[in-house]
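Input/output pair, single chain:
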Amino acid sequence: MKTQDKSKEKKIGKKTCSDKHCPFHGNLKLRGRVFVGDIIKVNVHKTAVVEWLRLFYIPKYERYEKRRTRLHVHKPDCVDVKVGDKVKIMESKPISKLKNFVIIEVLK
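Output:
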């Protein structure tokens, strides 16, 4: 689900970190889209997988089907998340081949 909040204010992380891709303590600039989703996987290398469901309309059957969107996002050191947390992510410049988004807030 895409959120309507277009404010690009940076929320301060809980603790300090030395991650150069951190939007709070590093040099990473945020821009573009903002989404809210659930964490379904957390990797060791500062990566998490965020998923959210959306409804897609099928005109032939006049019904909706559930589809899911999964994104690999960057998890800064100063943000503590675990599987099952609801997070807000925001687009940034490409960090790696798959990562174009960064976790900016934990909503729980």
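The chain has no helices and five strands. The two ends are 16 Å apart (CA to CA).
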